[in-house]
Amino acid sequence: MKSLVRSIPDFPKPGILFRDITTLIGHGEGFAASVALLADRAAEAGAQAIAGLEARGFIFGAAVAARLGLPFIPVRKPGKLPVPVLAIDYALEYGTDTLEVDPGAVAQSQKVVIVDDLIATGGTACAALTLLRRAGAVVDEALFVIDLPDLGGAERLRAAGVAVRPIMDFPGH
């Protein structure tokens, strides 16, 4: 599967080596294999629902939820949900962003597994973790297609009591 991830130098800015999963999702067999592996791990974790982070986490998370017959909880950017939401602001490298969730999508003490395409610095994943726990979820597992371990995001999640299980990693970034 690792060979199906395209590397784009100097995107989105000079010095960044971007790991592009569109080539993985564009390869039917590779995409199916990655979803199957994530689904197996979510099932092992006892998932009762899958939370996917906008936007590419929707691709993998919804596929995992469908494969397991579980509810899918979209963790959205602001202004996308038509109901009162729980929201959290979080820091980015240059500024801040916000995530939102429909609190009615999470049952109290529901075991929710986070699924996203990539973990880098962990800002978005940690914000989603806080938001889901605030909504009443029990979150102690996060699954990613790719980990960029040198950026420390997986360690940030582990420090918050979450097991982090990527399919592959790309050290050195």
From TrEMBL:
Its EC number is 2.4.2.7. Gene3D superfamilies: 3.40.50.2020. This is Adenine phosphoribosyltransferase. It catalyses: AMP + diphosphate = 5-phospho-alpha-D-ribose 1-diphosphate + adenine. Keywords: Cytoplasm, Glycosyltransferase, Purine salvage, Transferase. InterPro entries: Ade_phspho_trans (IPR005764), PRTase-like (IPR029057), PRTase_dom (IPR000836), UPRTase/APRTase (IPR050054). Pfam families: Pribosyltran. The keyword Glycoprotein does not apply. The lineage of its organism: Bacteria, Pseudomonadati, Pseudomonadota, Alphaproteobacteria, Sphingomonadales. It comes from the Bacteria. It comes from Novosphingobium sediminicola. Catalyzes a salvage reaction resulting in the formation of AMP, that is energically less costly than de novo synthesis. One of its GO terms (molecular function) is AMP binding. It is found in: Cytoplasm.
